[in-house]
Amino acid sequence: MFELEPFVADEYIERLAWRTPGGGSRGGEAFDPKRLLEEFVNHIQELQVMDERIQRKVEKLEQQCQKEAKEFAKKVQELQKSNQVAFQHFQELDEHISYVATKVCHLGDQLEGVNTPRQRAVEAQKLMKYFNEFLDGELKSDVFTNSEKIKEAADIIQKLHLIAQELPFDRFSEVKSKIASKYHDLECQLIQEFTSAQRRGEISRMREVAAVLLHFKGYSHCVDVYIKQCQEGAFLRNDVFEDAAILCQRVNKQVGEVFSNPETVLAKLIQNIFEVKLQSYVKDRLEEHRKSDAEQYLKNLYDLYTRTTNLSSKLMEFNLGTDKQTFLSKLIKSIFISYLENYIEVEIGYLKSRSAMILQRYYDSKNHQKRSIGTGGIQDLKERIRQRTNLPLGPSIDTHGETFLSQEVVVNLLQETKQAFERCHRLSDPSDLPKNAFRIFSMLVEFLCTEHIDYALETGLAGIPSSDSKNANLYFLDVVHQANTIFHLFDKQFNDHLMPLISSSPKLSECLQKKKDIIEQMEVKLDMGIDRTLNCMIGQMKHILTAEQKKTDFKPEDENNVLIQYTNACVKVCGYVRKQVEKIRNSMDGKNVDTVLMELGVRFHRLIYEHLQQYSYSCMGGMLAICDVAEYRKCAKDFKIALVLQLFDTLHALCNLLVVAPDNLKQVCSGEQLANLDKNILHSFVQLRVDYRSARLARHFS
């Protein structure tokens, strides 16, 4: 019971009490404390006896454990002594083995020292024997007569050949000749054997023969034969570059199994492919068009150079020695150097003629003879005068609505230049790249910006009629719209294709300045043309007002029989203005729209303001003027310019002075919209009333 785990004293006492008669309420019997006490005393005595017995057992076990521990310690000491003796014996044995090994090595060295001279003597004796056969002129040894022993014969003849070179010619000329002849014959036989083995695909035999030939002068010829046979049947397709890559891939796997210097052999194969196959192929393709077709020549040059460099990148995967990058670069340069030296001159020449042809073809399609804009002298003087005065110098040219700007022409010019930039990037030497790219950019500026856009602007400026022309057709905004689109395309090509080529060179600032100058020059002409176009618009409005506005509109004969809401002149002017506003929005973008519309709105307001100042107004005429201005203000809302709308709001408030009762004039003039205006302006509008000279009105306004 006591050995059971875990032991709980309370549970043990409970069980003891429960088993004792009278110790609990079991079966309804009465509780007997004396009996329970007696049972507890007896049980305590039993526990004390049990404790003494267990204690004696524990002491006995402790004595036994101490005895066994002493015996184990004694045994461990004995084992340690045995181990020390064994280790000492092992050290003695190791020293003895080292001593014996030293003796054996020394004996081996002595034997080798004796055997090596003996072997050399035996070999020298054999060589002397074979040398005597050459002296006698008759080769009797089996090694020379048995074709299966060609490897041994090659080794012997190679050594004899080296010995013969040291002998004096006058005494041994004949034998030297015979040895040289045999040397040559064996060399030819080995090369022939290598060739046959290569055709049969016997790699092991090729490796064996190549190892023998390695010490012969004709080893390089063996490599040449291998390279030649590798290329047999390898270039049967039209794509010589793909064929070359496949051939090198195949040879790369095989060459290491045949030759002891595979990287040299593979490099020689690649050199042969470049200097023979590729050079011939490139020359045929380029010389065909070099003098007759510059476009095809440049396309072929770019294509061939690209495919050659791509092939070079694939070959970089192979082991070609230490500096394979330089090796492959020299091979490429050897093929293309004669074509790359004057590449940029051909490129510029082609780009110039091609761009001129694109422009001429466009002008021919329009049946237009291009005018000479001219530079220097009188032309420069005219230009300065025009910029300062904005006056049209010279007769106006009727362009019949033609802008002389073509998106198709622009796309063609940009496409040609894009291809030129791509070729320049690929074909130019890195040191010449920024300079060459700048020359191509200069061509683009000359033909796109100067010869096409600038010419169209000059022609457009010359086509703008004078401000007093009647029914003038204004096409310059179409020029602005197309020029805007072209500028975006031009700027995109500048950033996408030119910037990467010049970004890290001094040419960057030069290109940016050139671009800035040409754009500023064109913006001056665009601003000038827009300004003159706005003048023409105002001139057209003035013609409409002059032709349609009648004095009786604002001073009708019958004040009680006015049936119209606004005058015919107002209707036509508003219709014209709305068309021009829409045209300006379609022709421009960004802040330029607001700038031009603001300028037009201000001039439109000034025109209406000055126009209204020309008439006298009765009460009903004043109401009609207010209606007209309200319509003009509604038209001004289309501008979506706060200043313009504010100007017409103020003008509308001024027109109220034409109809307000004399007693209310001062109140109206001090209103929010008119309070800040100059008193002379207010007075000038009041003076337009037909009743201005009446004493009552003059008294109220004084």
Automatic annotation (TrEMBL):
The keyword Transport applies. Residues 152-701 form the Exocyst complex component Sec10-like alpha-helical bundle domain. It holds the Pfam family Sec10_N. The keyword Transport applies. Keywords: Coiled coil, Exocytosis, Transport. Residues 44-82 form a coiled coil. InterPro entries: Sec10-like (IPR009976), Sec10_HB (IPR048627), Sec10_N (IPR048625). Residues 33-141 form the Exocyst complex component Sec10 N-terminal domain. One of its GO terms (cellular component) is exocyst. GO terms for biological process: exocytosis; Golgi to plasma membrane transport. Belongs to the SEC10 family. PANTHER family: EXOCYST COMPLEX COMPONENT 5 (PTHR12100:SF0), SEC10 (PTHR12100). This is Exocyst complex component 5. It comes from Bubo bubo.
